[in-house]
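Support case: user asked for a sample of complex input and structure output to validate their parser. Sending the pair below.
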Amino acid sequence: MKIFLRLFIVTVCLLLTCGALIPTAVSMAADDGVVDFLDDEFYESELDSVQVGDPLEPFNRAMFKLNDFTYTWVFNPVATGYSHIVPWDIRAAVGNFFYNLQEPVRVVNALLQARFSDAGTLLVRFVVNTTGGVAGLGDPAGRELGFKAVDATLGETLGVWGIGDGFYLVVPFYGSTTLRDFSGTVVDGLVMSPYYWWADGWEEVAAIYLSKELNKLSLHLGEYEDMKQLSFDPYIALRNGYFQYRKKIRDYSTPSYEDKQ
Amino acid sequence: MKVTIKYYLTIFAVTLLLSPLVFHGTALAATPDPTEQLKPFLDRIVAELKSDEFKQDLSCRQCKRIVDLASEHFDFYEMSKRVLGKQWRTLSKQQKDQFVSHFTKLLQYAYIGKVEDYVDKKIEFKKQRIKGNRAEVQTLLVDANKSIPVSYIMILKGDKWMAYDIVVEGVSLVRNYMEQVRSILHDEKFPGLIAQLEKKVQELEEEKNKQGATATESTSNLDAG
């Protein structure tokens, strides 16, 4: 287990240095513009995916194919079967449980990004959901008290600090990301999440990761198929969707859908 | 040559003179409410999609009717124009028409194929925002477990709000297609793009027929049972 952890930390450090070496201007330009769909300029502005760049496209396309294949023939059938056996409420609770354990990491990241009110929200969420939500199985903080989930990742923190995205990356069994964001995810996920500390050996880590992802997938069945059905170049569609969605999540200036008129 | 220049100048001058009147006119007439137009329109489409007549229609004969209905508040021309971005201006009128018709067909198959998505979902109307002749209507597509934010981006044409983009969870449909189209145009030029669109539409058509076949099977099974 120790060797495994060390190996990861070394990889992460290597990845981070690579990310840091890549000019930061790229990420600044990509993260800055506020999206206004009512502005025609928005439609003519440069796409994020173009600014970040995809120099590894042949490799990424191969990984996309691999992921598509394993998704279609392994993960999707398994998750579908699982979704028939286990009712939605329980799967949602399992998802909440894993999500809640990562909440402290989000608090730290929100603080590192100087998003103090979000850090407060996240802290309240963690405390309330761990106690009132029975170890994070429920989400009373979001549902009853109005402390809605916000995201704060290390990838984002690094972006705020001026480290560039590097380039677009499709990771096997993980999906769309960028070099910087993936480095962040590895640290956030594997090093900072308590459920991986309990694991004994890499097999258990992999098993935890897979069950976590499978459970997550069972809550989002059909979404990937929809995306694929609607597009004539699914690789590009997914890449573009990833960047647009990421931008939306990280654009804190836009009011959320929850505040009614 | 001289005549044409003079002709254009006159038109230009007349337009300039009239434009304040026109703008004044539209400013005086109250801007119609986008949500009030969108809501009954979407209700009608969903009702149509849910109707038994449509469900049993395997050869998609009713699809044309849905598209006609959708065209009332969906502007496929504006949509296509934005999907092609800067390339739009380089196309001939014929090419433009060709792209619009193929793209409309793709959307028709892609979205009408997802009927069951709407059957047990409810559309909740949230905020709306108007900026000049543009408007955004935010909605939530809600079912028992999840709610997905869907925004309609619209342009005012006459007294009608016409949607030209749909934004699902922050992902603009137009921008997504735009990038796909761009890479194909770059590699294979316009004929290649049309070929790809045709291929995709054909794929969707076949899938729809297959779905139709399984649908009849299950209904006949039900009848038997």
